[in-house]
Write a structure and sequence with these properties.
The complex is a heterodimer of chains A (about 1200) and B (about 290). By secondary structure, chain A is α+β, with helices and mostly antiparallel strands. Helix content of chain A is about 50%, strand content about 15%. Chain B has helices spanning about 40-45, 70-75, 90-100, 105-120, 135-150, 165-180, 190-200, 215-220, 235-245, 275-290; strands at about 1-10, 15-25, 30-35, 55-60, 65, 75-80, 155-160, 185-190, 200-205, 210-215, 225-230, 245-250, 255-260, 270-275. In chain B, a hairpin with a 2-residue loop joins β9 (about 200-205) and β10 (about 210-215). In chain B, α4 packs across α5 (about 135-150). Classes of the chains: A alpha+beta (about 1200), B alpha/beta (about 290).
């Protein structure tokens, strides 16, 4: 009996459309995930999409969202018989409650499990697709699929199925169950987000019912090799987590069993009876009335339109699904809004712009689903409800049926978006931020999205009017969405054929408080206008093809189409076509005639061709630039930069040079170019690359002049890449975008491994020259064609903006509506220039002979003083310990967020994005002060890049970025004290360890670091701090002073990382332990495993305490792929005893009872100390200066 | 006056629901009788503009129904055989909505009209209740209320009394007959008594064809002296069919009463019977079946 019930239930569920909808949906989602380059969960270009790790991550994520499907299955088991009225018949049979309930539950759960097989199946099918980069796919191992499905996905599915089954038996309602589901999902997300801090990681490994926590804990520091091969071991927290929640699931089933009432509920029947009797007791009728006369004029049509729109809107607003969707969207966006931050766990001021960014990303997909779902519901409602004969026989023109569907969905959009705005504005107010910019919500969010989404709704309604069934219409729309996403990766980017003009929610303009939506905002409206005209055509066609009465087939409707288009409908259609042609033509003029239309794919192919044609010139000796004169006329509103310039070039080689290779940025227009004593021998038009031949070769030491005129401009707007360097307010240009480079190098080439493979480029990776390759020392990091240069830059712009470039301002005149400023250096600087122009507020602070200033957007005043203070602290430290600051000015300039969230150091000039320091909220003293940190880092670059610059080869970033980190760390230590550095180091440690796992090529030791930010920033901080701790601040700084003495402002040969390592070795002295430390820090990838396994404190007779610690220690060396070998450890390590836990709120220097450096060897050892106070926490390396994968086990609570 | 000419309708699956139907329907109640599947609903839907016939013409006064269905809809009241309702909407709101769709745009007059019809159909007391909770009879009354909105000149009611209890059926038929005096009312049914009681004119539809038209009284008169009855055993019916034109058999007091058609006394224990419309109906159906 039991088995047959299971079988029956399973067959029932398999016939249910929900089953197949779920299967298709999740198949498509996973298939998209597997085959698309844009989206990934768990995988990257080295972690295979079918690796156990990536599959586990994907299946976990999908099993969370699968709740919406599995709930439909299991809740259906409970509510079905009540809904169909079949309950009494079933329950009157001899079936037992246990068989009935659990037979059905098991049947439904098997259906859930079968449906979820779509996910691994789609992964498998995806790996077979020819267009997927073969290097993203690992070997096919059926065991991995089975293991991941059974161990990772299935337990979560079982728990949620059991849980929502229990909920359904309690509520006996589908809607109630779904409301509960959303509530649980919201709670779950809030709890897991709050608990996403490292200190809760172990607890969450046990408590997270879905298993994310357990998987994260086990895999967090896995390397690529491990991710690709290891199956998650079912031991420790994972095992306990699975066991715990399996028990909970069984408990929930037991609750469901006991709460389920087998007898029939009679509520509905009674309700009907009551109605029947009431009918007899009817109220007295109204007495007098005027007979209404039907009218068919404009007023009647208007009334009909309003009535239909209200009915259609009510259907949306009254349906439970709407609230589920709204709650889902709000909860998704709510997390983003509430936890919006600036990295490093730093708070930001919740400026409206950032919240709009969050809403566009995390909320706007809800209206898309609403459009698809309700287009189907509304178009098919009359047929679904069986009212079509009555309604369709009414004297209502067809457009009165069609228009309200679109209108109602549009109004629902407005309601949804307004709700999200209210939520965001409330969050702003709750966080104490009162500058709620409603205008920005209106014009950057509500209006463009409402229009774009309505265009999408028209499409959805049109599709539903064509297809023979609602489900088919939904399917078509889902496929359409997938196609939209996939099309981009095939180079189909043009807004003229991508419905809506861009992504699903229309063209998205990058936002900036400085520059608004910029030119992309304007372009967006042209595309919306164009698609609105096409949507009008679709709407008219929807009207003309409208199903009325019993004729639902498409062919007869198509046949009568021409007749239906006679009259106003046809006129409207013609208008739409003409308008679309007109606006489309104008768009085409802008995107393809006035500007060059190019896709990502075009650019990739160009870069590949560029490399194939020109890279072989790389080693050709070229002269170097010694002097640069640039004259840049900016026209921010055009946008346009008219540039003229002169380079003085010198042959610094020992042989004559016969040819000069001059290249310009891909889309830069070269108006004039002449080289003294040379003629244009060859021009590669496609590559903007020219070869000049000297009439008489340039002799060694000889100087000549090169002059050029270029124009960087955009006319009107482009399809998607509107110019972001020159904008109305906030221009930020790099000189390589407007001026030539000499000779060929590896800039502008494809670096992505899979792309290089795709275009047949060799080698597979562009790597920096090896540390041993001393020929590379001829060139510095910034550019190959210059050493230190004299610069003379003139920038002119509109009268009300401030122009800026590196150098001292020697001239600043506003005349004829233009402001012109000239910047000259008094000593050579790096050939690395920024050109900026914007409306700025300026705050100045002269400090010890240096003129400090911050130029900022008037709306972002919060951190200006903090930046100035940081500059002062940094200047003090760096001048006292390294060398004098080489300029008498230092200035920070804000630039728009859409150019990136970074700060960059040019000579005496630091462009700083509005998205970082300017909106950080540093008022909470317990958080890391990122404003000071970033500012001090960038100031540090004035030494570490602008005084000494390394050769472009392995390890070069250690000489600028790592040392700038050191400058920043020391400034922070001076400002906040040594004990506060811990939280910063801990963050650096976690980020380094996590990023190691994402390494796509191979991890290098610090002295060989390539383009690996996690090494030169994150590990760099840890290495420098530990070095300072172990050999002393004075020794480190002495070595750095030597570096500056030997190399500052000197040309080739440039220093390399080993030069500094040698200096560190000299400064550290002959102590073999210190020498070994330097080897471990700079030359190897060293990992420690330190634990305090036991700490006991005993009171002595004399009232003092004996504290005994048991410590285990290990040291490993790792290779580039993460493979580890044991190393003998024998080095001094800090051991500390504390009254309070370090790194926690309230921890101060007074809580340090003892901090002593002890020799620690590999293995287990005990240490005993005698102290005056009894500690509560004790441990080894308490401040996390060492790279340890279990840094949370360094400390332990002290027992009695 | 409704004129139907050579109307043929073939469905997508090849079923010929209507086969060259020609019919003139005068003012007043008109009964359309026919067994299930005879094509009644297809005919009703064609007239109600819900489907375009494959061939043929329908004219109502000067309106060409096939070419300008929107004109007919302005004067049409239609109660389909089966209809659903929107969820979560009350009788009043739904009727009000229908009234707007029927062109009653003036709010005050519309309210009065809606209330009048609710009262007339005895739904006033439950006007605020959700339609979805209505019993079959109540729903049917709501159906007629909406069909009567806006003073239609052509009313089509398809199987209106199915599922009604006797009291409700009477009330419903009375309501129809009151209205039926001035407008064209087409009553499609398979219940012979409905037609007998109400309709001065009628037609019988079988297999998509009109097989009989006329006034019920005249049709009954044609059968005078031709209907004979006899009580037989159930087992003998098959045998009887071989020798006589059995038009109907019916259980009566546990025995079977057979009606046969015969111009002369068949003898054999048959007694003459004063036939009714039912006999007309059954004999016509029998004849059309034999012809087919």
């Amino acid at each position: 009996m039991f088995v047959r019930i299971i079988g029956f239930e399973l067959r029932y569920q398999l016939r249910n459309p929900v089953f197949w909808t779920g299967v298709i949906l999740f198949f498509l989602l996973t298939f998209g995930l597997t085959t698309s380059d844009q989206i990934s969960i768990g995988s990257n270009s080295n972690v295979h999409v079918n690796s156990p790790f990536a599959m586990a991550q994907a299946e976990l994520a999908f099993s969370l969202f699968f709740m919406f499907v599995s709930t439909a299955f299991v809740a259906n088991v409970v509510v079905r018989d009540d809904e169909t009225g079949y309950g009494p018949i079933i329950r009157a049979t001899r079936i037992r409650k246990f068989d009935y309930l659990f037979g059905r539950f098991l049947g439904a759960f098997i259906a859930v499990a079968l449906a979820f097989l779509a996910v691994p199946l789609a992964t498998f099918v995806g790996t077979l697709m020819p267009w997927v980069d073969p290097d993203k796919i690992g070997a096919f191992r059926p065991g991995d699929y089975a293991y991941t499905y059974l161990v990772v996905a299935l337990p979560g599915l079982f728990l949620t199925s059991a849980g929502f089954f229990a909920l359904a038996t309690a509520t006996r309602s589908m809607m109630g169950t779904y409301v509960g589901l959303v509530a649980i999902l919201v709670t779950y997300t809030i709890v897991t987000t709050i608990a996403s801090k490292p200190e809760y990681m172990t607890a969450m490994a046990y408590l997270d019912p879905m298993g994310f926590g357990a998987v994260d804990l086990v895999t967090r520091y896995w390397t690529v090799a491990e991710k690709n091969t290891l199956l998650m071991p079912i031991v420790g927290p994972v095992l306990w987590n699975r066991a715990l929640w399996f028990t909970v699931a069984c408990g929930l089933l037991a609750i469901a069993y006991f709460s389920f009432k087998f007898e029939t509920r009679g509520r509905k029947a009674r309700k009907k009876d009551a109605l029947g009797t009431q009918a007899v007791a009817a109220a007295p009728p109204p007495t007098a009335f005027v007979r209404a006369v039907p009218r068919f004029d404009a007023a009647a049509a208007r009334a009909q339109l309003v009535a239909r729109t209200r009915l259609d809107m009510a259907q949306v607003f009254k349906s439970p699904a709407f609230f589920v969707l709204l709650a889902l969207g709000l909860f998704n966006a709510g997390g983003g809004i509430w936890f919006v931050d600036g990295g490093y766990g730093v708070d930001i001021y919740p400026v409206t712009r950032r919240l709009i960014d969050v809403l566009r990303g995390a909320f706007a997909f809800i209206p898309v689903i609403v459009a698809i779902y309700y287009a189907g519901e509304l178009v098919w409602r009359e047929r679904d409800r069986g009212t079509e004969e009555i309604i369709d026989a009414a004297p209502v023109p067809d457009w009165v049926f069609v228009a309200p569907k679109i209108l109602a969905i549009a109004l629902v959009f407005v309601a949804l978006l307004v709700v999200s705005i209210v939520a965001a504005a409330l969050m702003q107010l709750i966080k104490g931020y009162s500058n709620v910019e409603l205008g920005k919500y209106l014009w950057w969010y509500l209006t463009p999205l409402t229009v774009s989404l309505t265009l999408f709704a028209v499409l959805a309604v049109f599709v539903q009017a064509l297809v023979p069934h609602k489900f088919l219409g939904w399917g078509v729309m889902v496929i359409y969405i997938v196609a939209q996403i996939v099309a981009v990766s095939y180079g189909f980017e043009h807004g003229l054929y991508r419905y809506g003009g861009g992504g699903l929610i229309g063209p998205i303009a990058p936002l900036s408080d400085m520059n608004g939506q910029g030119r992309a905002g304007e372009a967006g409206w042209w595309f919306r206008a164009y698609w609105a005209a096409i949507a009008l055509v679709l709407a008219v066609l929807t009207y003309a093809l409208w199903r009325r009465g019993k004729e639902t087939r498409l062919t007869p409707r198509l046949r009568r189409l021409p007749r239906r288009l006679m009259g106003p409908a046809g006129a409207l259609l013609a208008f739409g076509v003409v308008a679309a042609a007109g606006v489309g033509g104008f768009i085409f003029l802008n995107t393809n005639v006035w500007n060059v239309y190019h896709t990502d794919k075009d650019d990739d192919r160009w870069a590949a061709d560029y490399e194939k044609a020109l890279l072989h010139y790389q080693s050709l000796p070229q002269p170097k630039i010694t002097d640069v004169t640039l004259n840049v006329a900016l026209y921010p509103d055009d946008p346009k930069a008219v540039v003229s310039g002169v380079y003085t070039i010198q042959n610094k080689t020992n042989a004559p040079i016969r040819e000069l290779h001059v290249r310009f940025d891909h889309y830069l227009k070269v108006v004039g170019l002449s080289v003294e004593g040379a003629w244009a021998k060859q021009t590669f038009e496609k590559f903007n690359y020219r070869i000049f031949a000297f009439d008489t070769p340039m002799a060694p030491g000889e100087k000549r002049r090169l002059s050029f005129q270029t124009v960087l401009s955009q006319k009107g707007f482009t399809n998607s890449r509107n110019m972001t360097q020159i904008v109305h307010n906030g221009t930020f240009l790099n000189d390589t975008e407007i001026a030539p480079l000499l000779g060929m190098d590896e800039s502008m080439l494809l670096t992505d491994r899979s792309k290089r493979r795709k275009y047949g480029l060799k080698p597979a990776e562009l790597r920096m020259p090896k540390l041993e390759d001393d020929s590379a020392r001829q060139f510095n990091l910034m550019r190959k064609d210059s050493d230190w240069v004299n610069s003379d830059i003139t920038v002119s712009t509109v009268a009300d903006q401030t122009p800026m470039a590196p150098g001292y301002k020697t001239f600043d005149v506003t005349a004829g509506g233009r402001r012109t400023a000239r910047f000259v250096t008094d000593a050579p600087i790096n050939h690395f220039f920024s050109i900026q122009s914007a409306h700025y507020s300026i705050r100045r602070a002269p400090y010890k002979g240096v003129d400090l200033s911050v130029l900022y957007h008037p709306g972002h005043p919060w951190n200006v003083d903090r930046m100035l203070a940081a500059l002062k602290v940094g200047l003090d430290y760096d001048q006292a310990n390294f060398s004098p600051y080489q300029f008498h000015q230092a200035r920070i300039l804000e630039f728009p967020a859409f150019q990136g969230a970074f700060a960059q150091s040019f000579a005496n000039t630091i462009p700083y994005s509005e998205d970082i320091g300017f909106i950080f909220d540093s008022r909470d003293a317990s958080k890391i002060d990122m404003v000071t940190y970033v500012t001090a880092h960038e100031l540090g670059h004035q030494w570490w890049a602008h005084q000494v610059i390394g050769a472009r080869m392995q390890g070069v970033a250690m000489l600028d970025e790592t040392l700038a980190q050191y400058s920043a760390l020391m400034a922070m230590e001076k400002l906040y004290g040594r004990d506060q550095i811990r939280k910063f180091l801990k963050y650096e440690l976690d980020t380094y360890l996590k990023s190691r796992g994402g390494e796509t090529i191979e991890e290098e030791p610090l002295e060989r670091v390539e383009d690996q930010a996690y090494i030169y920033y994150r590990k760099g901080s840890l290495v420098m701090y530990r070095l300072k701790e172990m050999i002393g601040e004075n020794a480190v700084n002495a070595a750095l002073r030597s570096l500056l003495r030997q190399y500052a402002f000197k040309g080739a040969p440039y220093p390399k990382s080993t030069d500094l390592v040698t200096l560190f070795r000299q400064a550290a002295g002959p102590d073999p332990i210190k020498q070994q430390l330097i080897t471990d820090l700079f030359e190897k990838i060293t990992l420690y495993d330190l634990r305090t396994t036991r700490a006991v404190s005993r009171k002595r007779a004399d009232g003092r305490y004996d504290v005994t610690l048991t410590i285990s220690a290990k040291k490993h060396y790792a290779d580039g792929k993460g493979k580890e070998t044991d190393a003998a450890m024998n080095e001094p390590v800090d051991i500390g005893l504390f009254a309070r836990e370090p790194g926690k709120k309230g921890f101060t220097a007074g809580d340090v009872i003892l901090l002593k450096r002890m020799m620690v060897k590999s293995g287990v050892a005990t240490f005993t100390f005698t102290t005056d106070r009894s500690p509560t926490f004790a441990g080894v390396d308490p401040y996390n200066t060492m790279i340890d994968r279990n840094s949370d086990e360094n400390l332990t609570k002290v027992g009695g | 006056m409704l004129q139907i000419d050579e109307l043929t309708h073939v469905y997508a699956n090849g079923v010929k629901a209507l086969d060259n139907v020609t019919l003139a329907i005068p003012k007043g109640m008109f009964g359309l009788l026919g067994p299930n599947g005879a094509g009644k609903s297809s005919l009703m839907r064609c007239i109600a503009t819900l489907q375009s016939p494959s061939e043929g013409q329908i004219h109502f006064d000067d309106i060409d129904v096939v070419k300008t269905p929107e004109k007919l809809r302005r004067i049409l009241g239609y109660l389909p055989q089966d209809f659903g309702v929107y969820p979560r909407i009350s009788a009043y709101d739904m009727l009000d909505h229908m009234a707007i769709l029927k062109g009653l745009s003036e709010p005050k007059a519309r309210k009065a009209e809606v209330e009048r019809l609710l009262e007339q159909t005895n739904l006033y007391g439950v006007r605020k209740k959700a339609l979805a909770g209505f019993s079959g009879g109540m729903r049917q009354r709501f159906g007629i209320a909406q069909a009567l909105l806006g003073d239609p000149r052509l009313i089509i009611v398809d199987e209106p009394t199915a599922g009604l209890d006797p009291e409700e059926r009477n009330r419903f038929l009375n309501l129809l007959s009151e209205i039926g005096e001035n407008v064209v009312v087409i009553l499609s049914t398979h219940i012979v008594e409905d037609v007998t009681d109400l309709c001065p004119a009628m037609a019988i539809l079988a297999g998509g064809k009109i097989v009989r038209t006329g006034a019920p009284t005249a049709l009954v008169k044609e059968l005078d002296g031709k209907i004979w009855i006899k009580t037989v055993d159930k087992a003998d019916i098959a045998e009887l069919g071989k020798t006589h034109q059995v038009i109907s058999t019916r259980l009566s007091g546990g025995r079977t009463l057979a009606h046969v058609l015969s111009d002369t006394d068949p003898g054999d224990g048959f007694t003459p019977h004063h036939g009714g419309l039912e006999d007309v109906y059954f004999s016509t159906l029998r004849a059309s079946r034999l012809a087919a």
